[in-house]
Amino acid sequence: MLIGGSNKKFAANHIFLYLLRNEFSGLQLYIFFLMIAKSLTCKASWLKYSFFLTITLLAGFFHSFAGDIKFTDSWGKAGYTVESQNGSKVLLNYSIKAFSLSDFQVNGESMQNLELPGHFLPNNAGAPNLPGSGRYIAIPQGAEASFNIVSYRSETFTNVNIAPAFRIPWANEDEDLEYIKDESIYSANKFYPEEPILLSEKGLVRGIDVVMLGITPFHYNPITHQLIVYRDLNAIGFVVPESNKE
Asked: CATH number of the domain that 81 lies in?
């Protein structure tokens, strides 16, 4: 069973853990965060925070309709699709139908912001701002899970300078957004992240054993300025029952 969610971090972790367990549209997220911000801040901070959220939502909205790069022959619909599943395995497809690259000035440097429709939260502060998302997958009690990539299609883009993710401010902060590069990533001649899929440790959601499968369909090398886009990806997950574990 696939359960909706996202694998991004947020400053107010106690709020974000609730979001992980539910499917939300961009408008629902906007209204939810406005309600939280209003309850936590004074009037001045509330006005600034609501402005920040409005700009973020509008940017994501317009980019979702004006993707610069489109794929018309994807293996499936955009995002996650369950191809097949039974008691021991699940086959998932993840596809991208469009994304955009827009010019962006960061501390006087010409960089680019990468947007993927339906993704509104930034990456970890300072890391290349590559969109990614996750889904909870329910597994039998006591079982363990693993995932492998079965097949994929990718395209490589050159001369790309991806901007770092900004630090999400607390609702009571009045400073401008900070875009500070994580030099441990930006100074390394290797692709970030190392793998397009990541499987979490087993956890519990409402009494059900689950793992979270996270997919970041982009790899970026900040030294060579190459961007690899995993436009389609098939992954198969295996579940090992308690009785079969050594």
From this structure: 2.60.40.3800
